[in-house]
């Protein structure tokens, strides 16, 4: 006997990937239901490449009683309404929004990094999925932290338009095309022109001049990996459709050479090291699309500090940064707690 699984927000960028990845990984589901808002209710959506069509149901009218788990990709406002309702009905919510990430009663999980923390899910029947830029970074940091203890991280991100949803991707496409033919498309989703440009601003501004995206990288990394790590972030939107990149500078307590770090990363779960130190011997976002791994390249010493390293980290933000991590959490939940069969 398998699980009864809900995918809420099935028509969005992340929801579609959730369905694709559940199907690709042959998640042991007896039944899958796709939910969305009333706008999409009645439409159909394919379950991965299986040919199986799911009829989309309206989340407002859906009764979660008897369903084992729900993967949510519906944004914080709708999550606030529906997550407590699903959790109270006994359906464990794996939530991709930022709503519960810093709730002390909600585990924030990256399965390669802090799988044991999932045991705390029973407090609210909710498990949080981290922000995309945090997820890939902690996969890279964890094995290095275990080896030499990280003291401080300075990260700059290069985040793709898909992190802002389908509207973000559409705006990048339409603006790029318009500029080619001499037209203009005014920014709607982004605050400045995204085509042929970069924007040092993701999510809203906070009082100290940082942005919420930068704040998320700091507090989520501390919650998932180690509250003692000092971290500062600059998050930038770039004209790439899918795939977030990060330049990460790390200071360690103990010595760790670039070669030792490469050897550790080569064996680390979820990591693919591509680091040839030659033309093209590194990964760029277009090459990581559709992949599960967090790719690491350009590992090198930073001789300006004691025990410092630089590296380049790229991953499919819709997969490891969102849908894949949620499905991995579902698999972990099944293995450890909701055993079936
Ligand atoms: C972004 N972090 O890239 C967001 C998506 N979760 O905008």
Automatic annotation (TrEMBL):
Q: Name one GO molecular function term.
A: NADP binding
| Full protein name | Aspartate-semialdehyde dehydrogenase
List the catalysed reactions. Answer: L-aspartate 4-semialdehyde + phosphate + NADP(+) = 4-phospho-L-aspartate + NADPH + H(+)
Residue limits of the Semialdehyde dehydrogenase NAD-binding domain? 4-121
Q: Which domain of life is it from?
A: Bacteria
Gene3D superfamilies of this UniProt entry? Dihydrodipicolinate Reductase, domain 2, NAD(P)-binding Rossmann-like Domain
Keywords per UniProt: Amino-acid biosynthesis, Diaminopimelate biosynthesis, Lysine biosynthesis, Methionine biosynthesis, NADP, Oxidoreductase, Threonine biosynthesis
Catalytic residues as annotated in Swiss-Prot or TrEMBL: 132 (acyl-thioester intermediate), 244 (proton acceptor)
Q: What NCBIfam families does the database record attribute to this sequence?
A: asd_B, PRK14874.1
Role summary: Catalyzes the NADPH-dependent formation of L-aspartate-semialdehyde (L-ASA) by the reductive dephosphorylation of L-aspartyl-4-phosphate.
Q: Where is the signal peptide?
A: none
The Enzyme Commission number assigned here is: 1.2.1.11
Q: What is the species listed in this Swiss-Prot or TrEMBL entry?
A: Sphingorhabdus pulchriflava
What high-level taxonomic lineage is stated for the organism?
Answer: Bacteria, Pseudomonadati, Pseudomonadota, Alphaproteobacteria, Sphingomonadales
Q: Where does phosphate bind?
A: 101
**To which pathway does this protein belong?**
Amino-acid biosynthesis; L-threonine biosynthesis; L-threonine from L-aspartate: step 2/5; Amino-acid biosynthesis; L-methionine biosynthesis via de novo pathway; L-homoserine from L-aspartate: step 2/3; Amino-acid biosynthesis; L-lysine biosynthesis via DAP pathway; (S)-tetrahydrodipicolinate from L-aspartate: step 2/4
Name the residues that bind NADP(+): 11-14, 39-40, 162-163, 317
Q: How does it assemble?
A: Homodimer.
Give the residues the record marks as binding substrate.
Answer: 159, 237
PANTHER family named in the record: ASPARTATE-SEMIALDEHYDE DEHYDROGENASE, DEHYDROGENASE, PUTATIVE-RELATED
């Amino acid at each position: 006997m398998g699980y009864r699984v809900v995918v809420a927000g099935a028509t969005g960028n992340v929801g579609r990937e959730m369905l694709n990845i559940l199907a690709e990984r042959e998640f042991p589901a007896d039944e899958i239901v796709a939910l969305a808002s009333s706008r999409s209710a009645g439409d159909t959506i394919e379950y991965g490449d299986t040919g199986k069509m799911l009829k989309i149901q309206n989340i407002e009218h859906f009764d979660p009683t008897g369903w084992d788990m729900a993967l949510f990709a519906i944004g914080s406002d709708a999550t606030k309404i529906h997550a407590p309702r699903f959790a109270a009905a006994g359906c464990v919510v794996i939530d991709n929004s930022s709503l519960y990430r810093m709730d002390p009663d909600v585990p924030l999980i990256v399965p390669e990094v802090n799988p044991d923390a999932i045991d705390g899910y029973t407090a609210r029947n909710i498990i949080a999925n981290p922000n995309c830029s945090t997820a890939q970074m902690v996969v890279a940091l964890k094995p290095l932290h275990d080896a030499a203890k990280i003291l401080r991280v300075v990260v700059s991100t290069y985040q793709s338009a898909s992190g802002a949803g389908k509207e973000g991707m559409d705006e990048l496409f339409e603006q790029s095309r318009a500029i080619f033919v001499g037209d203009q498309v005014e920014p709607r989703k982004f605050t400045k022109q995204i085509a042929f440009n970069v924007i040092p601003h993701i999510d809203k501004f906070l009082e100290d001049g940082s942005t919420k995206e930068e704040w998320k990288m700091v507090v989520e990394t501390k919650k998932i990996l180690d509250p003692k790590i000092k971290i500062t972030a600059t998050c930038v939107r770039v004209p790439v459709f899918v795939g977030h990149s990060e330049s990460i500078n790390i200071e360690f307590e103990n010595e760790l050479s670039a070669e030792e770090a490469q050897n550790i990363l080569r064996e680390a779960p979820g990591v693919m090291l591509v680091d040839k130190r030659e033309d093209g011997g590194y990964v760029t976002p277009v090459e990581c699309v559709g992949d599960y791994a967090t790719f690491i390249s350009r590992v090198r010493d930073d001789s300006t500090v004691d025990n410092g390293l630089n590296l380049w980290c790229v991953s499919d933000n819709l997969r490891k940064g969102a849908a894949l991590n949620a499905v991995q959490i579902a698999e972990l939940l099944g293995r450890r707690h909701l055993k079936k069969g």
